[in-house]
Design brief:
There is one protein chain. The chain is α/β, with parallel strands linked by helices. It is built from four helices and nine strands; from the N terminus they run E-E-E-E-E-H-E-H-E-H-E-H-E. The protein has a five-stranded parallel beta sheet with strand order 7-6-8-5-9, with helices on both faces. Strands 2-1-3-4 form a four-stranded antiparallel beta sheet, with no helix packed on it. The radius of gyration is 19 Å and the shape is elongated.
């Protein structure tokens, strides 16, 4: 019998099966290995994440040149999932040498990440924000909107 818990958006089998969800491991496994789990019972405790949206101006309003880059750096520095919607957002993150930025399917990735307990940050051009927020609200995902335009 193993316990089941969510850590950083992934489901893990753990030795402690006393509380929450549990099941029977299909084989012996060491820490860090994958293992099948059958006869699952109980509920995996999981908090829903919150999406942070960093609003950047579109090219008509100055694009990445009008972004407060240090504000963006502060918000993305410790995030596991960073996404960019719009060329201006991609360029702003590029100026900060931020790597592993999602640029395709960003709304879907953010929603799934939040449902898995992660709190992604999405750098998004102002024109795309209403549609993105609508998607988050339809999925019942909490969000915070921060303006990244230079003061």
């Amino acid at each position: 019998m193993v316990g089941l818990e969510m850590k950083e958006g992934l489901l893990f089998a753990i030795a402690d099966a006393r509380k929450g969800a549990r099941g029977v491991a299909a084989a012996k496994a060491r820490a860090g290995e994958d293992v099948g789990v059958a006869s699952i019972e109980g509920v995996v405790q999981m908090a829903i994440g919150r999406v942070t949206i960093l609003k950047v101006p579109g090219i008509q309003k100055g694009g990445s040149g009008m972004v407060a880059l240090e504000r963006v750096r502060k918000e993305v520095s410790d995030r596991k999932l960073v996404g960019a919607i719009g060329i201006e957002a991609i360029v702003a993150l590029g100026k900060l040498d931020i790597e592993n930025v999602y640029i395709y399917g960003v709304a879907e990735a953010a929603i799934e990440a939040a449902r898995s307990g992660l709190s992604p940050v999405i750098v998004c051009i102002d024109d795309e924000i209403p549609g993105f927020i609508r998607r988050l609200e339809e999925a019942d995902i909490d969000y915070e909107l921060i303006d990244s335009k230079k003061d």
